[in-house]
Amino acid sequence: SQHHLPISPLPHTQNSFSVKCFSQSFCGNCDSGLFSCILSLLVYHPPYIPPTTRKMSLQGHREHHAKTGSAALSQSQIEKIRKDRVKNLTLSAVDLSKDPFFLKNHLGTYECKLCLTLHNNEGNYLAHTQGKRHQAKLAKRLEQEKERELRKKRRDQGLEALKSTVKVHKKTVRIGRPGYNMQKRRGENGENVLIFQIEYPEIASNTRPLYRFLSAFEQKVDMPPDSQYQYLAIAAEPYETIAFKVPNIPIDMDRIVKRWHADQKIFALKVYFDNPQRQDGDEEMGV
Questions:
Q1: Residue 254: what are its φ and ψ, rounded to 5°?
Q2: Which residue has the higher pLDDT, 98 or 88?
Q3: 157 membership: H or E segment, kind and range
Q4: Rounded alpha-carbon distances, angstroms, from residue 271 to 186, 245, 246, 254, 278
């Protein structure tokens, strides 16, 4: 109609409708008496939100194709955004200065001392710490530390048990040399025999004399050492250790006889030598 006058829409209100009339045959300039109004469109208007309170999604208009020429984000773009968010959250929550494997070198890059890898930034290093390689080496290192601690604990327990069994001898004041008596005899087969009798009247309680054979190069008293002789050392606390210088002849260790007379406090020792049968004219064995 030539008298078509569009009606302005109603103001936007929450859950309101606006009506537009695109044709009107009756108005103030027409006296035909006919009124025809065609309701051509019924449009729902969403609630009006002021610009200051509007919230936009992470992807903005692109997510819902709100702008011409925009498209949805690809899966790689979405994954990149997610990783960036995770990095930022991790950097704000994790203190890298407490990480024993984190190292910043003189070039400004970052190193992982556990995996020996280089990283351009802290986020890249954090992403590396969550990877399979770093986690596997970290688990292996923890197992090694547990095994090391277990070995140390077992060693400490063994040392404690050893300390409980081994008696630590304290230094005692020596009261001098003991009295002794020595005899030289011949055995049944003509071998040389030495009999030693050592008197220990002031020997310590629950203690017995000990003896040992020394070579000329083990002792430091009779210098210079003479390879033709060996030494028989006998010791008992609190007396001084005494030694007898005997010829360096093989000794029959299976025939050594020792006896401790507790009532008389006398230690007797009988030693057999493996020298051949004595011939006429042989010299007496010197002690």
A1: -75, -15
A2: 98
A3: helix 132-165
A4: 11, 13, 11, 10, 17
Total H helices, total E strands in the chain: 3, 12
pLDDT digits (tens, 9 = 90+) for 108-135: 899 999 999 999 988 888 888 888 999 9
Sign of CA dihedral 269, 273, 279, 285: negative
48-70 tens-digit pLDDT: 556 555 555 555 555 555 555 55
Half-sphere exposure (CA, 13 Å, Cβ side) for 233? Answer: 14
Q: Which residues pair with 19 in a beta bridge?
A: 42
DSSP string, 185-243: EE-TTS-EEEEEEEE-TTPPTT---EEEEEETTT-SSSSS--TTEEEEEEE-TTSPPEE
Whether a cis peptide bond, with omega within 30° of 0, leads into 51 is no
The Cα–Cα gap between 38 and 26 comes to: 13
Give SS3 for 151.
Answer: helix
Give whole-number Cα distances, 275 to 220, 248, 251, in Å: 27, 10, 8
